[in-house]
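Repro:
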Amino acid sequence: MEHGNLHFWMEISREHLAHNLLVLRQLASPQGDIMGVVKSQVYGHGVATAALLSSLGLRKFGVASLEEALDLKKSGVEGDIYILGGFFPWEAEAIVAEGFIPVVSQEEEFESLVKAAERQGRTARFHFKVDTGMGRMGCLPRNFTRSFFERLSLSPAVALCGVMTHFSSAEKDPEYTEWQFQKFLAFLKRWGFWGKSLEYHCANSAAFLVFPHMRLALNRIGIALFGVSPNGEPELAKSLGLKPVTSVRARVKLVKVLPPGFRVGYGGTFVTSRTSRVAVVALGYAQGLFRALSNNLEVLVRGKRAPVIGTISMDQVMVDVTHIEGVEKGDVVTFIGRDGEEEIRVEEVARRGKTIPHEVLCSFGRIRHRVFVE
């Protein structure tokens, strides 16, 4: 747990990641498979974590861009890499050359992919995305024409391998999510996609965990791989047996005693009400600890909870350890993870920061040091 002389680091549990992948695969089977969504540096965990997932047998990976796809391939990942976030016409050549599977939303994207495939004499695989109510990438059903359908299905230089949509509110609005799902099914059936050997997919982590009937041939799983509930309620992940993968820790740099009435941190937002022992810890907003958590966060020190006091600095934060005996320079402080019987989960940090767990994990991606543990 100590990891040498690091000031701060992220721990990634191989055992828990492997366990979560197994649980998710069992939930998806027998009719479907798992795509690990590993965009944004694998939700802040680094591309080496994608390589670990590959070593565990995962063979389908989703990223946001060509740049991320290239990084993933360089890391040694084996299997299909899907570019979920669209692409620019000038990126089509590299996408085809590398064998990536892009998601196409509009005719312009499709035509650039066809031309690149024809120039290279290759067959480019791709997925098509329909917008059923997200308002982001994807083709609106009313804009999908017979001529576009024929081009998608019959162009010899490309191969349609899947059709997808994306839910906007699966974490909190089951009615709208069901409406989107039915709209997606209606689109597939209307245009004759349903029943073919295609990878249909709509479920992100939130939909996959809560709505079993939306688990189709392929399922896009991101944050659930790390044992975190996409809706911010830890019980959802716990109830399915998913285990937290991520811990974030840092060291105490200094312990000092402050008198009553002493102002702590920039702006003096905290004033001691008693003689206080304060630990200065080597982590701040430069490493992803939201400044908005100032005076509104607890951490673990020697297995006990302790409050963050004062404004979070760029690379330091102050913690009141008056009630914890023996705290000294070099001690490990846990921001996310377990220490003894106590645990701080990603969902708790997200709730305190008034955001979503996804942003918390991606924010901690600024931490350079990542250590794989059992």
